[in-house]
Amino acid sequence: MRIDVLTLFPDMFASPLDYSIIARARGNGLIEVVLSNIRDFAKGRHKKVDDKPYGGGAGMVMMCEPLLDCLENVKASHPAKPRIVLLTPQGKKFDHEMAKSFAAEERLILIAGRYEGFDERIKIAAEAEQVSIGDYVLSGGELAAMVIIDAVTRLLPGALGDDDSAENDSFSDGLLEYPHYTRPEEFGGMKVPDVLLSGNHAEIEKWRKQQAIERTKKNRPDLLDNKNEK
Ligand code: 6GU
What we know:
By secondary structure, this protein is α/β, with parallel strands linked by helices. It has helices at about 20-25, 65-75, 95-105, 120-125, 140-155, 195, 200-220, 220-230; strands spanning about 1-5, 30-35, 50, 60, 85-95, 105-110, 115-120, 130, 185, 190.
C-alpha cells in the first residue's frame, strides 16, 4: 500500500515510522510512506503557505495554491487512484471500520494542515474526505496522520507476526478486549484468575467473552448501542 502525506513538517514523522510493526511493514514493502513538504510548492521569496482569514479573526489559514500544487504533484507520482483524506477536527470520526476501509485501498493520500485550518476551497478542489481522529483539537494534522498510518498498517495481511494477531484486538468484534495476565501468578497480593490457570480452553474462552462484554458495558456502553443498531 502506498501512503503519501502532505505536511509542512515532514521531519515529525521520522521516529514514529521507525519502530516495531510500522518499521517492519515498511522494510518488507507492505507499505511505502512518502512525505511531501507543502512549502516546496510555495511561490515567492517568502515561501508563503498561509494567510490572514477574510472577514478577520484569529490565526492564519492554509492557502489553496501551494497545497493543491503539492497534491497534483503527489498524485502524478504514482499510477494508482488514491483515496484522498483531509485531516481536520471537523471531519468524520476515524474508527475501526474506517481503518478497515482504508486498509482495503491501494493508495492513500493524507493531507495534514496547520494553523486555524484550510481555505474551504481546498476541500472541494481536492475532492477529499474530511477525517478527524477524535473530539479534541490538535495543533496540526501530523499526529492524526501517524495515528491513521499505524492503525491501518496493523490491519494489512502480514503486518503482524503470529505473536501479535489483530483478530483478538479491541473493536475487531465490536467489543473491548478481555483482561490479560502474565507471570508471576501472584503480584502484590493480586492473583491471576483461576480459570486462566485451569487449562480448560472452553472455559477460558467463555470467561474472556464475558469479561469483554462487562468491560465494554462499563467503559464504552456506546459500542454496545451501535452493535444493536447493526
Ligand atoms: Cl485530523 N486534526 C487536528 N488538527 N485536530 C484534530 C484532528 C485532526 N482530529 C482530532 N483533532
